[in-house]
Write a structure and sequence with these properties.
The protein has 504 residues and is an alpha+beta fold. The protein has a domain at 4-245: ATPase, nucleotide binding domain (Nucleotidyltransferase, domain 5). The chain contains 17 helices and 24 strands.
């Protein structure tokens, strides 16, 4: 009889649950529930109610379990990073969660960094700078703007922590997701007390304990096990982690030399490191991973946001978008997109907007706009990858995931802009798959000698050579010139972005 591990990925737009066969690694069943953000919020505010995630997880778990032919041996949870879930002393949600892409807390970021001695001092204390997306500024925002809600605050959780709390009744954080709060020193994996005090002198008492990664978070609550038909045996829930940490496991990025790029609503590039990689400029996030190592990472907020705008504007499906972009040569004949439609984290332009540069009649058509959108968001990601290279990371292979990775034209653009081979893997489930593999790792650790997460990923994950894209020298040269222009335009527009935001 087959045995399974469930992986749950609670994202910004949907929650997906997958069941992974413990012997073959195949995805035996999957289900997805789609939802949106809370409507009618002011510009820059992005929120969801955590109950939305619970409802979606419950629905998808029921659908998946109904398709299985054997027992579930473990559950792992992936969640969107940085979201702030405030709980009262009864464990009830106080207000909707402010999300990773909420840019309304820029003033609070400046206030916290100033309180500890400035941006450089903040990086010294935590290993990271403090962009608006991170959790720390959201806590101060609640204190300043909703003091009655802050007075009720008993526990700070992240989205995946909240799902773990619902599954087990236990409040705990793991190092990977916790490193994205900007409250923790990533080198010591301990809370940074100067940063906590800059927000509130009692904040440490409101933070859950930090848990070990290789051990289960706790057993699934008996009532949920009964409701889902999982029997009377104990089903362990692993520590889980942020979506990027679980995506790293799900792409086998648990050893040096591999880099993952995720082309989703947002974009991320991350690599595995045996030691902390702290960027003095604060552009590369010095995260911990969810296996006991570190995960230097760059995040951009606008990827498929840009391509979807073009696709919707011209009424094209995804195939037509790719075909249109393929009809235009590298560099889009001088049309360049600065794709900061939702503000931007890297480069740090929270007040940014989208800018098409080089518009003229010859390039104002669907093919040029489609290719410029793909190129613009990839140049934005490459800005971060180049910074990672400056810090000593040497990628030998780029593993692509997310919706944009399915587009062969876009994969070639990524290979040319990054100047590195790009390939997809045989499993496309990314963070959900990684959460299931982490659950398998925790289960094996609990039963016997220490299991090797690298061995587990190598057991089931392999490159699909038909998807491999190799950089073309002439395109690499073109994109290096375009990258220099992109960087210069971003620098020149920084002040204009702030002035323009004041007009809105």
């Amino acid at each position: 009889m087959p045995e399974y591990f469930l992986g749950i990925d609670a994202g910004t737009q949907s929650t997906k649950t997958v069941a992974v066969d413990a012997e073959t690694g195949a995805v035996a069943a999957s289900a997805t529930a789609i939802y949106g953000l809370l409507p009618d919020l002011p510009p820059g505010h992005k929120e969801q109610h955590p109950q939305t995630w619970l409802d979606a997880a419950d629905k998808t778990i029921r659908e998946v379990v109904a398709k299985l032919r054997g027992p579930v041996r473990g559950i792992g949870v992936s969640g969107q990073q940085h979201g702030f879930v405030p709980l009262d002393e009864r464990g009830q949600v106080i207000r909707p969660a402010k999300l990773w892409n909420d840019t309304s807390t820029a003033a609070e970021c400046d206030q916290i960094m100033a309180a500890v001695g400035g941006r450089q001092r903040f990086i010294e204390l935590t290993g990271n700078a403090l962009p608006p997306g991170f959790t720390a500024s959201k806590i101060l925002w609640l204190k300043k703007h909703e003091p009655a809600n802050f007075a009720r605050l008993a526990t700070v959780l992240l989205p995946h922590d909240y799902l773990n709390f619902w599954l087990t009744g236990i409040k705990r954080m793991e190092y990977g997701d916790a490193s994205g709060t900007a409250l923790m020193d990533v080198r010591t994996r301990a809370w940074s007390r100067p940063v906590l005090r800059a927000i509130d002198t009692a904040l440490e008492s409101r933070l859950p304990p930090l848990g070990h990664l290789a051990k289960p978070h706790g057993p699934l609550r008996a009532e949920l096990a009964r409701e889902w038909g999982l029997g009377d045996g104990e089903v362990p829930v692993s520590s889980g982690g942020g979506d990027n940490m679980m995506g790293a496991i799900g792409t086998g990025n648990v050893a040096s030399g591999v880099v993952t790029v995720s082309l989703g609503t947002s974009g991320t590039i991350y690599a595995c490191s045996d030691t902390p990689v702290v960027d003095p400029k604060g552009e590369v996030a010095a995260f911990c991973d969810s296996t006991g190592k570190w995960l230097p990472l760059v995040c951009t907020m606008n990827v498929t946001v840009a391509t979807e705008m073009v696709r919707d504007c011209f009424g094209m499906d995804h195939g037509a978008l790719a075909e249109a972009a393929a009809r235009v040569s590298a560099g889009s004949d001088g049309l360049l997109l600065i794709p900061f439609f939702e503000g931007e984290r890297t480069p740090n332009c929270p007040q940014g907007t989208g800018v098409f540069f080089g518009v003229r009649p010859a390039v104002f058509d669907a093919p040029h706009l489609a290719r410029a959108a793909m190129e613009g968001v990839t140049l934005g990601l490459n800005y971060g990858l180049n910074r990672m290279r400056e810090l000593g990371l040497r990628p030998r292979e780029i593993r692509a995931t997310g919706g944009g990775a399915k587009n062969a034209v876009w994969r070639q653009i990524v290979a040319d802009v990054f100047n590195a081979p790009v390939v997809c893997l045989n499993q496309e489930e990314g963070a959900a798959y990684g959460a299931a593999l982490q659950a398998m790792w925790a289960f094996e650790n609990a039963r016997g000698p220490a299991a090797d997460i690298l061995e587990i990923t190598q057991r089931f994950l392999r490159p699909v050579e038909a998807t491999r894209a190799v950089p073309a020298a002439e395109h690499v040269a073109c994109y290096q010139q375009l990258q220099a222009l992109f960087n210069r335009l971003v620098e020149d527009l920084a002040g204009a972005f702030t002035q323009h935001r004041k007009m809105l």
